[in-house]
Amino acid sequence: MISLPHYLAIGAILxxxxxxxxxxxxNLIVMFLSAELMLQGVALxxxxxxxxxxxxxxxxxxxxxxxxxxxxxxxxxxxxLMLYRKKRSLDISLWQALREPxxxxxxxxxxxxxxxxxxxxxxxxxxxxxxxxxxxxYA
Amino acid sequence: MLDPHQILLAxxxxxxxxxxxxxxxxSVKQLKSxxxxxxxxxxxxxxxxxxxVVAQLQQSGLPATFPGGDSDxxxxxxxxxxxxxxxxxxxxxxxxxxxxxxxxxxxxxFWIVVFSIGYMKGSPGFAxxxxxxxxxxxxxxxxxxxxxxxxxxxxxxxxxxxSYLLVGYWHHKHSAAAAARKAFLVTRLGDVGLILGILLxxxxxxxxxxxxxxMFSNVPALAENNPVLFPLSCLMIVLGAVGKSAQFPLYVWxxxxxxxxxxxxxxIHAATMVTAGVYLLARCTPLMLVVPGVQLTVAIIxxxxxxxxxxxALTQHDLKRVLAYSTVSQIxxxxxxxxxxxxxxxxxxxxxxxxHLFTHAFFKAVLFxxxxxxxxxxxxxxxxxxxxxxxxxxxxxxxxxxxxxLALAGIPxxxxxxxxxxxxxxxxxxxxxxxxxxxxxxxxxxxxxxxxMTAFYTFRAYFRTFWGPLRMPDGAxxxxxxxxNLPLIVLAIGAIVxxxxxEPFNQLFSGFLSKAPFLAATPSxxxxxxxxxxLGSSAVALIGVGIAYFMYVKQPASAAKAAAAAGSxxxxxxxxxxxxxxxxxxxxxxxxxxxGISSLVDAVVSxxxxxxxxxxxxxxxxxxxxxxxxxxFYALAMVVGVTAFIGYLVLFAK
Lengths: 139, 654
Prior knowledge:
Oligomer: heterodimer
Shape of chain A: extended
Low-confidence stretches of chain A: none
Strand order of the largest sheet of chain B: 1-4
Number of strands of chain A: 0
């Protein structure tokens, strides 16, 4: 039997996962996804309580959350696009200009791990000829 | 269309229009170099209207007024309380006194504007100059034509403002800006007195209307009912006249006002504005007649100033300053004459003052314009030690200056001679009166001495500038242009003929002025030429000229010897009797001290404020670093904060 605490536990897990993701990841889009995750955790809580109480109040809130999240996604993604065009990167730590004047910029003490380069896909040549592997830049 | 009332209104209104057009021209790039045109045209039209007004006055004998009838009076402003009522109307009225002043102001004003075209050519702010000069003419006409004292005061302040603007015309020059401030502040002292005097008069009379006619209608009763306030108000008005007309002790601003362009010195600080005080006193003759003490004060101030300024003028090296002090001195003569109006007949004394004012306007204007021409030619050098013998290179200027100098010195047949003679005659007449007879006799002696000094210093300036070997400062390029010569010639002719043509043999001037409403009722003197006085004053003038000729032409070395012989007297005169220094110690330095104390207090107060403000700033330094601009740091702070809050609620709050 799945009871209210189970739903709440799932909601809490979703929320905390989102929170951890929001605080630790530096990629704007991933941060945004984490925030969505937190919202869904909260929405799950609402729905669970709605079912437990036997009324529709919580479900209404869940619908609102979904609507707001949709709007947010539209605006946030557009803004990320603009930010990306300015700096050619999605790293949130590049945007520190609103700090107290006179304060040093915060820099990474340990350099970020270099992501391994993906192995390029094989390029298929015309049939009948032996396939050759060519280096191509996918960046 | 040519309604006399409207012609009268046009006299002050046309220069206002001129000023506006000049300002407009000045703000359009293509028209900038043409911005003198509206000023000249409006001055000419205004002058024509003034002549029209006077011709009509001569014909009908009735003062022209604006507005025409009693029914359409224009209320400027008014206030109505239970106990007091002040209604100030906008009304113009040209009686005979105003008519004479109008002729002088607009005619001389027009020629000086013409002279300015040549003098100011190429100067920055060309349009500004002509706009302000036009505005000055408008204010001066308003001052003269106003039919009540408050409207008169508006014109009075208007001319003061224009004087300030024009003295400080070259405002980037420190000395010009300082002179403008000085002129404004010193005359302000007098103006405060004047407005107090006017309000006192209103307090006593002006329940119903406040124009001159009504105010003067029952002066004796007024003086009887207010034994303290009435003389006080008269004294206040005298104070205003003293400030504006640069009499002792408020004369210090006039010599400094020579920092302005020379045509301005000619127009404002010689011919018109500075004589406004004399006009005011003449206008207030009915009031002054009932307070002989105030009359005597005026006469003493006048005679003393005349002597003092003439004494200073004896040794000045700056040509314009000599003329400035002579202006102060000549206005002193006019004050002396006005001050004689009680003991001598008003028809002698007031006429003498206004006649001297009229001739003085001509000959002093031509003197100033000639010195402006010299200055223009000598590349803005006006120190007489720097040049001499200019009569060959500036022939027209030389002749014009000579005409003015002859008139100023009081050489027989020239205009200044006749008017100065009338002033002396008025003083002599007053000397025969019972009450302050001896004092007026002394004043007569002072005036005669001053006449001697006047002749000397005028011709000292003339000989030093135009005679002797030709010397010029570097950069001088002596030249004369017709636009500057024409006004010189016209005014020089005026300086010669305006005296002899209108007064000594036909009494045209005194006959006309005596018809003024406030003079018409007073008894008429019998006309005669006082031959002993005429011969005596001619002798005095000729002696003065002779001494100057001897000292500066015959034996140029004797001037230095005389200066050395005079010793401390010479230094006294050269340093203007140290009046500026005395004023500095008495007024300027205490004020500076006060200002210093104030700025100290100011510094203490503002430093205290800054000290208090620095406490939160110092505290803020410790928590500043958490504002580091990292979004995730802020989010973390939020999580920690919310966690702490909820933790408290869950664990501790009941």
